[in-house]
């Protein structure tokens, strides 16, 4: 009997404040969709870091004859065979180095032609203008500075470059976008909470006579509060369900089908369905608990009848 009464009161309350209930559902759905999206974005950035940082190299570019005439780092002339041998031997002794690959001037010229063959500059270049280099795979990509400190400014070395620095700029941009999404999400959550509180107060005010009578006949505080809390929880749960639908649809159409980024951007290791599905219970739990708690605290003064 009590459960039936609570359920009937929930239906009455939702229908009585239909416009505000709809506003609550929309605001909760948008805020939690942004919340889930920001979590998935963090997972995506972490996945990309793990994938790309494992592939980055540190490159030690060696001086050639052209550099000896124009680059202060190569003022002592082009690299000698003895200098190359010492650089290679020192690299192999370093604990942070996983493996070393040598790229000759001819190989560098070939790779340049493959990548930039259509460039007007490519026609004027010759192999002897290209730089020899050592491509170093590190056991820990974060240890780049060890290589830079050991070889930057050394005789025969034109420069030491870390590909991780390029990726750091990309990941910095992605993290900035993620924090912007979180800021918007936080704003939407505040709006949703304010709507929930106002909806509950309006509902409680419109039924103040009934709650007063229930209080006078000895109904417990929880029994009076339950329909209002349940109304907010149901509206929030509907919004959370809609947010989950947004995330599933976005993953399906953006990555797998529609835009099909997984096919068009083969170099990016996208998050899988497991990352999405593990976030859905958290979103649903938040959508249920957040409105219920907001309603509970909003109703406290209305029970002092």
Q: Can you give a write-up of this model?
A:
The protein is of the alpha+beta class and 305 residues long. Helix content is 69%, strand content 8%. The protein contains eleven helices and four strands; from the N terminus they run ααβααβαβαβααααα. It is elongated.
> How would a textbook summarize the main sheet?
4 strands, antiparallel
Q: What structural category characterises the helix and strand content?
A: alpha+beta
Order of strands, widest sheet: 2-3-1-4
Helix content: 55-70%
Quantity of strands, as a count: 4
H/E series, N to C?
Answer: HHEHHEHEHEHHHHH
Q: What's the alpha carbon Rg, rounded to whole Å?
A: 32 Å
Provide the low-confidence segments as ranges.
Answer: none
Question: Beta-strand level of the residues, as a percent range?
Answer: 5-15%
What is the helix tally?
A: 11
Shape: elongated
First and last CA, distance: 24 Å
Mean pLDDT: 80
Quick description:
The protein has 305 residues and is of the alpha+beta class.
């Amino acid at each position: 009997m009590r459960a039936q009464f609570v359920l009937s009161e929930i239906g009455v309350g939702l229908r009585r404040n239909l416009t505000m209930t709809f506003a609550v559902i929309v605001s909760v759905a948008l805020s939690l969709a942004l919340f889930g999206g920001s979590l998935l974005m963090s997972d995506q950035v972490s996945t990309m870091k793990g994938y790309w940082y494992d592939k980055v190299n540190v490159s030690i570019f060696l001086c050639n004859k052209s550099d000896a005439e124009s680059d202060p780092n190569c003022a002592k002339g082009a690299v000698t065979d003895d200098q190359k041998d010492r650089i290679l031997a020192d690299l192999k002794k370093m604990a942070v180095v996983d493996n070393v690959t040598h790229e000759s001037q001819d190989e560098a010229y070939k790779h340049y032609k493959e990548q930039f063959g259509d460039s007007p500059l490519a026609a004027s270049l010759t192999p002897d203008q290209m730089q020899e280099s050592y491509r170093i795979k590190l056991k820990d990509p974060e240890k780049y500075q060890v290589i830079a400190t050991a070889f930057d400014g050394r005789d025969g070395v034109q420069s030491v470059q870390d590909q991780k620095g390029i990726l750091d700029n990309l990941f910095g941009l992605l993290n900035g976008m993620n924090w912007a999404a979180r800021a918007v999400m936080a704003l939407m959550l505040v709006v949703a909470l304010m709507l929930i509180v106002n909806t509950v107060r309006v509902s409680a005010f419109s039924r103040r006579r009934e709650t007063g009578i229930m209080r006078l006949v000895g109904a417990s505080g929880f029994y009076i509060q339950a329909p209002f809390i349940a109304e907010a929880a149901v509206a929030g749960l509907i919004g959370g369900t809609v947010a989950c639908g947004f995330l599933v649809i976005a993953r399906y159409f953006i990555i797998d089908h529609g835009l099909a980024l997984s096919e068009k951007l083969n170099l990016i290791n996208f998050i899988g369905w497991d990352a999405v599905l593990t976030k859905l219970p958290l979103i649903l739990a938040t959508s249920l608990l957040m409105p219920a708690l907001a309603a509970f605290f909003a109703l406290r003064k209305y029970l002092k009848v």
